[in-house]
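User: Hey, quick favor. My workstation is busy. Could you predict this chain's structure for me?
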Amino acid sequence: MPVTKTAKRALRSSKKKMVVNKLVASHLAAAIRLAKRSPTKDKIVKATSLADRAAKSMVIHKNKANRIKRALSKILPKSKKKAAKAKSSKR
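Assistant: No problem, here it is.
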């Protein structure tokens, strides 16, 4: 248990931040799960946005956010226009 007044204040602050950080992390995990289960562009964009926000508030490391975004972008469904354009540009 904290003894000094400032240590007690720091403990209260730390507990509040822990609750918020766990909430952010659980929302991110749920969004990633949904995006992987049924990969639509909206779900992947939302999960990417949550990863960026979690990294900004230092809930996760910025490199972890980049790894999450890279993995999500790989499962992003290709649009037919881009796929046709990619085939024609290879020739």
